[in-house]
Design goal:
By secondary structure, this protein is α+β, with helices and mostly antiparallel strands. The protein has three helices and five strands. Helices cover 37% and strands 29% of the residues.
Length: 131
């Protein structure tokens, strides 16, 4: 059975993607999780079967191998960035998004590298906002 890690999972929508160690990402639905399993967290190591679905490969019979270490709220608050650092990150995100918006206004998609950089900054900002 293939193994990998949870790339992302949306508990509200009941689906996400797993990153395989030996191949492309695999779609996973909530009904592939064992009974009583809570929502998957990014980084959780899993083992799963694979079947061909209508839109590509899909995970079946997911088994959680190692859950990522949970961070308590106090620990998370202790490692939270200072407001002046978050202000800089937020301003950078706004500048990057403005540049992307400008590209879209001119009828073109942003360059791949710029899109990746923007996504990385937005993920970091989102992580900080959730603490």
């Amino acid at each position: 059975m293939p193994t990998g890690k949870v790339k992302w999972y949306d508990a509200e929508k009941g689906f996400g993607f797993l990153s395989r160690e030996d191949g492309p990402d695999v779609y996973v639905r909530a009904d592939a999780l064992p009974a009583g399993t809570g929502p998957l967290k990014a980084g959780t190591r899993v083992e799963f079967g694979v079947a061909q679905g209508r839109r590509g490969e899909q995970a079946l019979a997911v088994t959680v191998l190692d859950a990522p270490a949970s961070v308590s709220r106090n620990q998370a608050a202790a490692r939270r960035k200072k407001p002046d650092q978050l202000a800089t990150i937020t301003e950078d995100a706004i500048r990057l998004l403005d540049a992307m918006g400008e590209a879209y206004r001119h009828g073109r998609h942003p360059e791949r590298q710029a899109a990746r950089q923007t996504a990385k900054v937005l993920r970091a900002l989102a992580d900080e906002l959730e603490l």
